[in-house]
Amino acid sequence: MEPGLTWVPTAHYRRLVTLALLPLLTAVVLGHPGYLVLAAPMVAALALAASRPGYGARVSVQSSGDRCFEGEQVTFRVSADPGGPADSAAIQLMLPSAQAVSGSTALGHVQAGGGPIEAEWQVTAGRWGRWDTARILVTVRSPGGLFAGTTAVSPGEITVFPRPPALDQLVLPAQLHSRIGDHVDRRPGQGTEFTGIRPFAPGDRLRRINWQVTSRRGALHVNQFAAERAAEIVSVIDAVTDTGPPGDSTLDRAVRGAAGIARAYTRAGDRVGVITLYGPMRWVAPGAGQRQFFRIVESVLDIRSLYSYVSPDVARIPPSVLPAGALVVMFSPLLDERAIDAAIDLRERGHAVIVTDVLATSPTPARGSTLAGLTLRLWRLERQALRYRLESLGIPVVGWPGEPRDTADAGEDSTARLDVALGRFARHRVRGGGR
Questions:
Q1: Does 277 have pLDDT greater than 60?
Q2: What is the signed CA dihedral for 246, 252, 253, 255, rounded to 10 degrees?
């Protein structure tokens, strides 16, 4: 590409003008024409470079990719060639706060002589989302350094996916779907896990006959195996409330948690969907495979730009998005009654619901307040009462990455394993059903 340069006088140009005006003013005020000789060099320099350059620059921008996960690096290679005589050329990379240059804090590369210039940066993606605010600033100084031409080039949009936390112990609903999968069902079927022996029935395969039991009892008996079925999991992201520092807010943790659920269950061959809980709700119907994982994470990248005064209504969710028997895992800070009512509504509709509390820090009371300790204690009692209320309705609540603390821990990994929070549900299957 060959963008045009916007030429403006430099500080050196303004200094020469100032130095040229001082002798002229002195000669006029004092009436001594001899002072004009002092202004001659500056006037000559300004006269030689009085014309403003009009050429542009050839800029080439290449990136190693336009998609990555949090913590991964993207390489930018930039080359610029001034389209005319130049004293020097410089390239500067300007990044949003969600991205950072790896290995060096210097964002500018300057090359004297005015020839072609090349630069390369390793940029680390720090926060999920779609980012197109990065700019590459090319600056060219004309001969003599009296004018500077600048242009800004965009390297394009970079899509950063949330990094999924590890989840090895899968939580399963009591009712598995009829599709074939890898999880052992309580119903008999054509799986590989032995469950017992029963009398032969028409339609049984001959290779299932247990000849030892048959010879001992004098009648045909067959081995019985459990069916292997797939589970259906729906993650619910509470986007009604977002609190906390950028990059480690409740919404950031909720999105990463939903990504962890999607990756773990799609790898196990299960069907996974997601529902974004805010005014005009968004959802992705349950599906299987790696393509479904990327469909889910792409659907939540624009959550930060969404805002609505409309209360979310679970009744608007179609049955294909929230099928019967699906396990619902909600990621919420439990700070808004609309999200709490949605969790209760899902439970009353017969779904097995687990609420993952993503509020990692307690509120900070005002300094110098004599009631600071009492206020914090009352807040914690309200949180305990809320948990007891939900658990009495059959909705277990777990904290992830942990219980709310008084202060944020800067060294804590915001992508802590989900097994710590959901592992205790892997020992038994979560039941649904209305109250």
A1: yes
A2: 180
